Amino acid sequence: MDFLRSITRSVSTLALALGLVAVALVTPASAANICDPTVGTQCQRVTTSGAAEIIRGKSVRPTYSVSFGALGAAAAHTVSIESSAGTGFRLTRWCISVSNATAASSVNVVVQRRTTASSGGTAATNEGTGTSVVSKFDPADGSYGGIARLDGTPGTAGAVLDQHNVQIGIIATGAGSETGFCRDYGTEGDKIPIVAAGVANGLSIAVPSFGAGSLATSISAIIIAEN
C-alpha cells in the first residue's frame, strides 16, 4: 500500500511539474528593454511576442539640455560645461543658429577639453525660464549637478576635441535668413566625448563672431550623465 501511495504521489508531482512547464511555454513573458550598458541609450524593446524593436529616446541615464539664446552674433561666445564632484557627462550634440551677415564669413567652432573650472560670465539656471538654462529632459531625474556658463573665463585649455567650420551667407535684401548647424557624436559607433567627474573637469564650445550685420544667435548642447 505504501509503495502504491508513493508511486501515485510521484506521478502527481511529475504531472504538476509538466503542467507548470506547459504554462510557462504558452504564457508570453513581459516586455523588456535592452540598453547599451555604457551610455544607457540605443535601446531595444523585446515585445511579448518575442520581436525586437528600436526605441528612440529611451535612456536609463539622466539627460540635460544646456542652452543660451538671444545672443549678439557680432561678438564671440564661449559656452563652458563642467561636471559635478561625483558625476561626469558625455557630450552627444551641440547646435548653433545665426542669421546671415552683411558680408560672407567662414567661422570655426572649437570644442576643447578644460582642466580647471571656469569663472565669471553668466551661469545657466537649473530648470530656468529665461534664455540661459540647463534643463533635465525627464522630470523624474535630479537637476544637473555641475555648471554651465556663457563667456566669462574658461578653464585651463586642454586637448582640442573637435573643430567644425561653417560658411555664413550674405544678407541680400531685408532681414537675413537663419543658418543653423549641429554636430552629433556617437552616431556611427564612435565614442562620445567624455568628461570625468570632478568640478575641475569640463569642456568648452567656442563660437567666433559671425561678422557685421549678424543678428541674434543661440547655442545649445545635449549632455548625458556619465555615472
Tag the structure with descriptive keywords.
single chain, 227 residues, mainly beta, 2 domains, seven-stranded mixed β-sheet, six-stranded antiparallel β-sheet, 1 helix, 16 strands, globular
Give an overview of the whole structure:
The chain has 227 residues and is mainly beta. The protein has two domains: 2-55; 63-225, no CATH class. 11% of the residues lie in helices and 43% in strands. It is built from one helix and 16 strands. Strands 4, 6, 9, 10, 13, 14 and 16 form a seven-stranded mixed β-sheet that branches. Strand 2 and strand 3 form a beta hairpin. 26% of the residues are buried. Mean pLDDT is 79; it is low at 14-29.
The proportion of residues in beta strands is: 35-45%
Terminal-residue CA separation: 65 Å
Structural class: mainly beta
Low-confidence stretches: 14-29
Give the overall silhouette: globular
Rg over CA atoms, rounded to whole Å, is 27 Å
In DSSP terms (H or I, runs of 4 or more residues), the helix count works out at 1
Order of helices and strands: HEEEEEEEEEEEEEEEE
Q: Helical percent range?
A: 10-25%
As for the number of domains, it is: 2
* Beta-strand segment tally: 16
Could you tell me the mean pLDDT? 79
Major sheet summary line: 7 strands, mixed
What's the structural blueprint in terms of helices and strands?
Elements lengths: L1 H25 L5 E3 L8 E4 L5 E4 L7 E10 L4 E6 L6 E11 L5 E10 L7 E2 L1 E2 L5 E5 L10 E4 L6 E12 L9 E7 L9 E2 L6 E6 L8 E10 L2
Parallel strand pairs: 9-10
Antiparallel strand pairs: 1-2, 2-3, 4-10, 4-16, 5-11, 5-15, 6-13, 6-14, 6-16, 7-12, 7-15, 8-11
